[in-house]
Amino acid sequence: MGKTAALLLWTSKRREQGGLFPVWLSPRPTLTANSRRQLLEVLTETITEAILDFLIRNSNAFPSMSPTHQRAVANLVLHHIGPDDLEAHLIEKGVERDLATALRDSASGAGVSREDTEIALWVILSQAHLAGFWGYELLLDIPKQWCDSLTPVLLRERLRPLLRMIPLLEKANCYLKIAVPTPQALVPITVETVHLEWSPDHLRQLLDQRLRQVGGESLAQLFGPDRPDDPDGWIVEAAQGSPRRLVRLGNWLLERFGEKGRLSVGEMKVVIKEEGGAIK
Predict the structure, then answer these.
(1) Is 94 left (phi over 0), alpha (psi -120 to 50) or beta?
(2) pLDDT > 50? residue 187
(3) CA angle 163, 169, 171 (to 5 degrees)
(4) How far apart, in whole angstroms, are the C-alpha atoms of residue 260 and residue 74?
(5) Cα(83)–Cα(62) distance, rounded to whole angstroms?
(6) ∠ CA 56-61-63, rounded to 5°
(7) Residues 232, 67: Cα–Cα separation, whole Å
(8) Does the pLDDT value for residue 237 go beyond 80?
(9) Rg for the chain (alpha carbons), in Å?
(10) Sign of CA pseudo-dihedral 161, 162, 163, 169
(11) How confident is the model at residue 42 (pLDDT cuts 50, 70, 90)?
(12) What does each C-alpha distance from 153 to 161, 165, 181, 187, 261 come to in angstroms?
């Protein structure tokens, strides 16, 4: 299905285009929160860390925000990282004191404490927008092993508190996308679903992109005289529509090449078989 790769591509495009800022949710804390308030704290803390990472990577991002958005972002950050701990937290990430000072100076006097009501936190979240973005896209990628170990009923129960929060999230300009290995895991919950399948052409494009990242043009460069006529085509076929399997196969071939030098057809067949792929 290629759900993880599709979300990664979606994330990259979102950040380039602006609009909704993508935030990845960690499955375990998101799906094991014991109350709505705890779930809200998990979500806003994850958003806070994503905001800080963005501000760290883009030094002009915070100064370019409006004072209202600066204040809301600062309040959200200081809600999860106290003003006394903020500087140390940022220094651990390799950041100078300037950002910590700017966040503290921009926060309102009272801020948002851990004891404040949910309403206060929702209001701050709805205003805490980064420059060039008007909200957040919350991305939850549920691992296959979770679906294998939980029955559909249990998985739906884990998801239900998050799904019930969708109306409040949307009022705060936060929009949820959940990726599961099989859509049956969500039935009978009524949600909009998109089934993702990768064609051989799409997989070949992904392979080309990965090869260019390491300065290559074709997997043929990794082989000696004993090589397939079209090793790129072999690995695309062996991936069976899965970009994750394609990446694993490609990584293995690169690692093997680094260890042994030129590869052979036999070695390629062995790794394809180990990864559960198939070739004609």
Answers:
(1) left
(2) no
(3) 130
(4) 52
(5) 17
(6) 110
(7) 52
(8) yes
(9) 23
(10) positive
(11) very high
(12) 14, 19, 15, 9, 49
Q: What is the pLDDT of residue 1?
A: 41
Stretch 160-184: mean pLDDT? 85
Q: From residue 84, give the alpha-carbon distance in Å to each of 41, 45, 59, 111.
A: 20, 17, 22, 14
- What sign results for the dihedral spanned by CA atoms 219, 235, 271, 181? positive
**Structure tokens belonging to residue 158:** 């884990």
100 burial (CB, 10 Å; 0-12 / 13-18 / 19+) is: buried
Which residues are within 8 A (CB) of 75 and not within 5 positions of it... i.e. 6 or more apart? 107, 108, 111, 112, 124, 128
What are the φ/ψ torsions at residue 20 (nearest 5 degrees)?
Answer: -105, 130
Q: What is the mean pLDDT of residues 267-280?
A: 66
Residue 37 tokens read as: 């308030």
- Tell me what pLDDT residue 253 has: 77
